[in-house]
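We modelled the chain as a single entity of 106 amino acids. Its sequence is:
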Amino acid sequence: MATTNDLRRYPRLSSPKGTILAWQTANRRVVSSVDNLGLGGLYIRTPEPPAPGTFIQLLLDAPTGEVRARAIVQRSKPKAGMGVKFIAMQQEDRARFVRWLERLSS
């Protein structure tokens, strides 16, 4: 039986306890905790996630520096959270995010 990571292009890692990020849609700003993360996206815990297909902007304060990205909601579960896929990230932000993931996986 395939696990979720077997179906992903990039594996996900559990985020360190207390990892939070700010995200916003066209008309809403929220701060939420991060459940897991990978090069392709993250799972954000939030009681009222937007619907799949919604575009969001993210700001993550990683130990390696600030990471900004645009993402699209792939999965959404009320009272639980949402899985998002990165669709745009500046090269510098991606480099900081990759360094953090490398630290987490070692």
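As a brief sanity check on the tokenised model: The chain has a mean pLDDT of 91. Strands lie at 13-14, 20-24, 29-38, 41-45, 55-62, 65-77, 81-88.
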